[in-house]
Amino acid sequence: MLKKGLFPIGFRECANYTKKKIVKGREKRKSRGRREGDFVVAERLRLSEERYNNLLEYTEYAPVSMWVEDYSGVKSFINRLKKRGVVNFERHFEDHPKDVRRALNMVTVRYVNVATVKLYKAKRADDLLGPLSRIINNESLPLFKEQLIAIAKRKKEFETETVATTLTGEKINIQLKINFPNTELKYSNLLVCINDITAHKKAENQLKENRTLLKSVIDSLPFSLFAMNKENKYILQNSQCRKSWGNIIGKTLKEVSRVSAKEKKIWGKNNREAMKGKTIDRETERSSGEGKRYFQSTIAPIREDGEIRGALGMDIDITGSKLVEKKLKDSTEDLKKFKLAVKYASDTVIITDKKGTILYVNQAAEKISGYSQSEIIGEKIGSRKLWGGIKDSDYYKIMWTKIRDEKKTFIGELRNKRKDGTEYEAEIRISPVFDDNKGILFYIAIERDITEQKEIDRAKSEFVSLASHQLRTPLSSISLSAELLLKDAAGQVTKEQAEYLNDIYEDVFKMSELINALLNISKIEMGTFVAEPEPAEIVDLIDCALAEVETQIKNKKIDVARNIDRMIPTIEVDKNIIRVVMHNLLHNSIKYTDTGGRIEINAKKAGGSIILSVKDNGVGIPLRQQSKIFSKYFRADNVKKIEASGTGLGLYISRSLLEEVGGKIWFESRLNQGTVFSFSLPIKAKKEKWI
């Protein structure tokens, strides 16, 4: 607000005197002229006008904006309202806003000083003289209404802070003051003083914003923060402190109810030490409804100009870090026990950090690899310096993606090399170990030497292969003989004989299918499978596959639809692989689809590959068994009820063959709604896959 003494001493008295002489003198000129004479009146009027002009000249260059305004019409208007019985002017002007505008039109600006011209961005004083309504906009009408109410209530002065608009449209903060006269005659020359407080308001708002920001920062701290003065009364606390201790502003430590007597004793001692200039830092243990909690408490002196003015304290809940510390200690103990448990295990056990650096190996690692623990620890797992690194880079990329990115267990087989140069086959299982937040702490790998097991499997595969080859010749002979007899090559057969021959033919066919499957498995597992890619048209391959199952399709009256993308180019592929895969998929769809069902074959180009799919509306695959569908010898429970016979090898062989040549196979299925099996093959054969 404006301070007293802001304007020149004696100004109000001089103004009242001059206004009285000018206004009142003119109104009573005739009566005074008769009494004193025209010469005396003229002389006095001249002296009054001279004093008034001298006063205006004195205020012309005053640093504060000064206005002389004629409010006589406003005063008369208010008097008329009073005669009409208006008492509550606040309500009257609220109900009759037009009266406010009408009163504003009655005010005239008679004089402004240089400071006013500069403040309102006017080119000259004349731009501001005249009706006040030219300067005041609608936003300032509520302020003018308050002035009217002040006049109606016969207040001695009106003082307020508001926002004004300059002639250029700029908003400025002002402090306005009007001194109302004692008589109605003096309202014709009211003095209005305006002080520009824009810079002050800006600084005040900035200070307010800074305080708000500081309070927000203090309240967002995750620990209790408080301050006290020299009288040991709390003068500041943040929201966390308020949550823990309640409202403590203006209270002493003794008056805080949520702090125990024991804690008050400790805090009181710490506060006294802080007031002496010491910083106190300590850990405490407190009991609460949630159990024991641990806190780190700090209190330090607040200094100003070298003098201690109070103390600032912090109370940080460190229960979480304490628990982590305890868990880490427990984990260390568990790790020691684990090391003892795996020390004498027959399988290699390896522990690495998050980057794959080996931290620990058991004795089995030394025995199997031939490297000592000192040679192994500190090296990267799979490094060529040790017994790894034989597999290509793609193998290790897949491994790291599984354990690091997907955070899942990796299971695989690989060949490793011992220190003496001999190679062995191993099954490896690597799992990430997590902390409470699912972050990876380290990895644990278990490697098992399966060289002997692999040799046994190869021996079994060789036996199966040999036995299968030996069985194919007599089966082919039986099949051919049955077929010739059915065609009456040895004379006409009876109906009963034909039925027996058909049973023989079908059983031989099934046995041949089994032998072919066993031969394919043995070739894959023995590593003797050799693909022979050659240019082929996908339409021809599908036609050949359909021809093989044409009889089954007709017997069950299956509707077969084909959707072949015309953009599919000639591909390089082993035709036998496509024949086997398509035969297996079509055979399953026909077998497990009801009579009169539908099968749809689709083929399209996708990037550098082609995708083929076989869709049916058959029995589908139970959700809980879908993860096992490509396993060797596996058959779902629902299809066993439909047909008891079956090897469970078709899908296993299909996936194995496709993986050998860089392809993939997948499926979607819903129980009792059908299944879609899809597989992909590269358009151009990858030569390294055929070796």
TrEMBL record:
Annotated compartments: Cell membrane; Membrane
Domain PAS: 334-379
Membrane topology (UniProt): Multi-pass membrane protein
Alphabetically ordered keywords of this record: ATP-binding, Cell membrane, Kinase, Membrane, Nucleotide-binding, Phosphoprotein, Transferase, Transmembrane, Transmembrane helix, Two-component regulatory system
InterPro entries to which the protein is assigned, alphabetical: BphY/WalK/GraS-like, HATPase_C_sf, HATPase_dom, His_kinase_dom, HisK_dim/P_dom, HisK_dim/P_sf, PAC, PAS
Record-listed E.C. numbers: 2.7.13.3
CDD domains in UniProt: HATPase (cd00075), HisKA (cd00082), PAS (cd00130)
Annotated ranges, domain Histidine kinase: 466-685
Coiled coil: none
Transmembrane portions of the chain: none
Domain of life: Bacteria
PAC domain mapped to chain residues: 410-462
GO MF assignments: ATP binding; phosphorelay response regulator activity; phosphorelay sensor kinase activity; protein kinase activator activity
Family matches, as SMART domains: HATPase_c, HisKA, PAC, PAS
Species: Candidatus Falkowbacteria bacterium RIFOXYA2_FULL_47_19
SUPFAM superfamilies in the record: ATPase domain of HSP90 chaperone/DNA topoisomerase II/histidine kinase (SSF55874), Homodimeric domain of signal transducing histidine kinase (SSF47384), PYP-like sensor domain (PAS domain) (SSF55785)
Name of the protein in its database record: histidine kinase
